[in-house]
From TrEMBL:
Lineage: Bacteria, Bacillati, Bacillota, Bacilli, Bacillales
Signal peptide boundaries: none
Cofactor: Mg(2+)
Species this chain originates from: Paenibacillus baekrokdamisoli
Official protein name in the record: Probable 2-phosphosulfolactate phosphatase
Family affiliation: Belongs to the ComB family.
GO molecular function, one term: sulfopyruvate decarboxylase activity
EC id: 3.1.3.71
Magnesium in keyword set: yes
Amino acid sequence: MEIVVISSVNEAQAECFTHRTAIVIDVLRATSTMITALQSGASGVYPVETVLEARTLQQEGDLLAGERFCRKIPGFDLGNSPEDFTPEVVKDRRILLTTTNGTRAIHKALRADNVLAGAIINASACARMALELKRDIVLLCAGSHDDFALEDGLCAGLFIDRLQALSGIAVETDDFGAAMLGLYKNASTRILEPLHRSSTGKRLLKMGYGRDIERCGQIDSSIIVPRMQGDMIVQG
């Protein structure tokens, strides 16, 4: 099995995804929020790239959710904090979600045979499902704006570690993947530290979202695996 790691959404080329399973990673916070929304009973998450598209697609009963520059979009029902997506708010509701990088990364990955949403909180469950799909795997780190994000690379290393352990066979990865595996192994017992030190983490802390970092850094706290089916992300 081969694992390719893409450092940011801007580095993603269509041919990277052909005949593969893609795991899209946006730890802080889009994919962590998708997992939380489905765990809280949302009927599905519809990832859209623009605010206008979200407003245009909204139907009765839908919730608009999203952020730009880590802030809730004015007029939207929800932001991009997992704390917002409680069962009382989202149960049985469809969520139209647009974020700076995460939902864009989902759309970039659509050429893959399968598209999963991965994060630190569902790493083992998501790795297990990816192995069951019996395809080579591409890990797409969404990044922050146009750049690599440390927290996504750390999570990619966690995924490689889990994929190796669960498969019981040697896996091949590229140089960037090997570097991210090393990053994870060096931080595996103190994973919250690099999350707080990352550029995104510092920004969230400054804006008062420290609880999001704590929540998004809990390894394997969820068994929910969001999976793209048609235009919607649902529980896999």
